[in-house]
């Protein structure tokens, strides 16, 4: 069984490449962001953060208010590190459990920050010019240029992010170009 992880820059096409790879390999597709969203609903996790930041981060039903979390973690290094120290290990354990004994492609945007575990066989890094990524984030997430910059400053430096990766794919081209790159990459990985 093999696990291929896809990580990379914000707005660089990780989701698109992950879908393409899982279809080509006919294997499971795991999304760390979805896993993290589920982790944030756990009572024990909500309790940890409410104790740290107060009940203001919870709505009337006791659910996490994502915008309040973003305001906490994307403005303060210490709070960002605290959040990572709680969330990353749980998310990685969940992904490991989901990928045990199966072939899978796992999209893990923060893999370099979480640390590359031994159960991941290959890591692919997606990258694109900032202007392309900013436009994608504006169109798909409604983020301003400033919001993308604010979030990116909390990532490890690119050199450290690349250090945990085996392959790099540029994603500015067409969908057809990305599919061709994916086919070529899988042939290289599987030989």
**Helix and strand composition category:** alpha/beta
Report the oligomer.
single chain
Q: Domain count, please report it.
A: 1
CATH class: Alpha Beta
In percent terms, what proportion of residues is strand?
Answer: 5-15%
Q: Look at the structure and give the mean pLDDT.
A: 95
Share of helix, binned: 55-70%
Order of helices and strands: EHEHHHHEHEHHHEH
> In total, how many beta strands?
5
Q: What's the overall geometry? A: globular
Q: CA-to-CA gap between the ends?
A: 15 Å
Adjacency order of strands in the biggest sheet: 2-3-1-4-5
For the biggest sheet, the summary is:
5 strands, parallel
- Gyration radius over CA: 17 Å
Description:
With 191 residues, this protein is of the alpha/beta class. It has a single domain (3-8, 25-189), classed as P-loop containing nucleotide triphosphate hydrolases (Rossmann fold, 3-Layer(aba) Sandwich), CATH 3.40.50. The protein contains ten helices and five strands. The chain has a five-stranded parallel sheet with strand order 2-3-1-4-5, with helices on both faces. α1 (14-25) crosses α10 (175-189) and α2 (32-39) crosses α5 (77-99). The longest helix is centred in the middle third of the chain and has 23 residues, at 77-99. It starts with a strand and ends with a helix.
